[in-house]
Design a protein that fits this description.
By secondary structure, this protein is mostly helical. The chain contains 20 helices and 2 strands.
């Protein structure tokens, strides 16, 4: 592997990360709450190390050619470095003096998980609150570009699934070149963010809260400016706006581009989109009826709270308007299952993704059909396109690894003293990048009571889940490091 190219790209990433700290720095200067130094020192560290790597290892001819191995390493190290340097403001300010807690909070932000160890969010300086939200917005856009433009080139199981519905790796992109693809996606992402920001302002949210919640909604991240999350605002309008934009953020962003350019056939004809909406509709109906039967809410409130939580969980956003841990068992089971479904491929949502679930269901039906008709020649199709066996093997491999990691991490947490529900739901909520879970990590609690080792296990789950499992686990293979 060419270490110089790797360090050059990582240096560029760190320099850009330092630039993004200008926004929370300006916020801290405006509010004068004593967190200015935390961002100045953090920016200086990111700038200095980033610039050192950039200029020291810059190719003489200005061009870089990366191998698959280098690509995997850069993606994983890039997220780790962002989480490392992103933790500096928390430690310097004293919000989370423990490195473990600060790193957990930072990686939860960049992976758009939303799991927090901060017990009193309401008292934090505005600059720190904005930084928490900004890390999620940056992580969300990074994931879209990663999943649509980069991972298919690396052959990573998961995002190459676009081949099942789109012709080729090149045509999978909005534009042939990655740079143009990234630019187009940024434009779509920013435009939708601006629309949500305006609508939240129109609903009575102040400018600061509107900006922070726009960042974390579009990233399906879930960090809020209040301990009570969205319930703090006591507004049906705000609930409705955030529900709609969580729904939008959970849809493949290439479909948003198709819709914006007038290609309605591709948008409405997408089989994953229809599956995604069908799951949401079914879950909302069942949970609404369940809540009404138990008379937990009055009138249309059952529909309001059910729809918000279903969309929040399936898109892996993690915002809350109610403590769903106190809901009836049926509602809790449905929400727990939705943690394993996730949003669409190519969205900011995490977890297994609707596309994989849909293909697994289709393949399972095909196997049952073959038992009835053993001589029939059948193929799995997504829309009108055939899904080839190697793609299905990738899907099943991802699914198996995902479940094995969930079970393994849950066992470790139970060995650390956590009860079964807390252990399992905390792993499901972190590997799926959801945030809140059940038991001791319910919406009214935080991850602060998780043991030291448990926080590192969950941090690994967040990173692996966010980077599509394969990207991280492949680095653990001895063969990866052999020449």
């Amino acid at each position: 592997m060419n270490r110089k190219n790797i360090l050059y790209i990582l240096g560029s990433l760190l320099f850009f990360l330092g630039l993004t700290m200008i926004l929370p720095l300006a916020c801290s200067l405006y509010y004068q709450e004593g967190d200015t130094g935390a961002f100045l020192y953090s920016m200086a560290a990111a700038f200095c190390i980033g610039a050192l790597f950039y200029f020291l290892f810059k190719p003489a001819d200005g061009t870089i050619s990366l191998t698959h191995k280098e690509g995997f390493l850069i993606v994983t190290l890039g997220w780790l470095l962002a989480a490392l340097f992103g933790s500096f403001p928390y430690m310097i300010q004293g919000v989370l003096p423990s490195f473990t807690d600060a790193f957990f909070e930072s990686i939860s932000g960049f992976t758009t998980t939303g799991a927090t160890v901060i017990t009193q969010i309401d008292g934090l300086p505005h600059g720190i609150l904005l930084w928490r939200s900004l890390t999620q917005w940056l992580g969300g856009m990074g994931i879209i570009i990663l999943s649509i433009a980069i991972l298919p080139l690396l052959g990573v199981g998961g995002m190459q699934l676009y081949k099942a519905e789109l012709p080729s790796p090149v045509k999978d992109k909005i534009t042939p070149r990655i740079a143009e693809t990234a630019r187009t996606l940024w434009i779509v992402y920013i435009i939708i963010s601006i629309v949500e920001f305006i609508m939240l302002m129109a609903g009575g949210m102040n400018l600061f809260d509107s900006l922070c919640h726009t960042f974390t909604t579009m990233a399906t991240g879930g960090f809020s400016t209040s301990d009570a999350s969205i319930a703090h605002f006591h507004s049906a309008y705000i609930d409705g706006v955030i529900t709609c934009f969580m729904l939008i953020a959970g849809i493949n962003f290439t479909l948003h581009y198709s819709l914006a350019t007038g290609n309605f056939r591709i948008f409405f004809g997408n089989s994953e989109l229809r599956f995604y909406l069908a799951i949401i509709l079914a879950a909302v109906i069942v949970i609404t009826i369940t809540l009404k039967q138990h008379a937990l809410y009055e009138g249309e409130e059952s529909l309001r709270y059910a729809s918000f939580q279903v969309v929040s969980i399936i898109t892996t956003t993690g915002f809350t308007t109610a403590n769903f841990d106190s809901w009836p068992s049926l509602a809790k089971i449905i929400l727990l299952l939705l943690m394993f479904v996730g949003g669409s491929a190519g969205s900011t949502g995490g977890s297994i993704k609707c596309l994989r679930i849909l293909l697994i269901l289709k393949h399972s039906y095909q196997e049952l059909f073959r038992l009835v008709h053993p001589h029939a020649v059948t193929t799995v199709k997504l829309g009108k396109r055939i899904v080839y066996p190697e793609t299905m093997a990738s899907v099943w491999g991802f699914f198996l690894l995902y479940l094995m990691m969930t079970i393994g991490a849950s066992i470790i947490l139970t060995l650390l003293g956590l009860d079964m529900m807390t252990a399992f739901s905390s792993v499901a909520a972190t590997i799926g990048n959801v945030g809140p879970g059940f038991g001791a990590v319910n919406p009214l609690s935080t991850y602060s009571e998780i043991p030291f080792l448990g926080k590192w296990v969950l941090s690994f789950c967040m990173l692996a889940g966010r980077l599509e499992i394969y990207t991280v686990l492949i680095l653990l293979l001895p063969e990866f490091w052999k020449k």
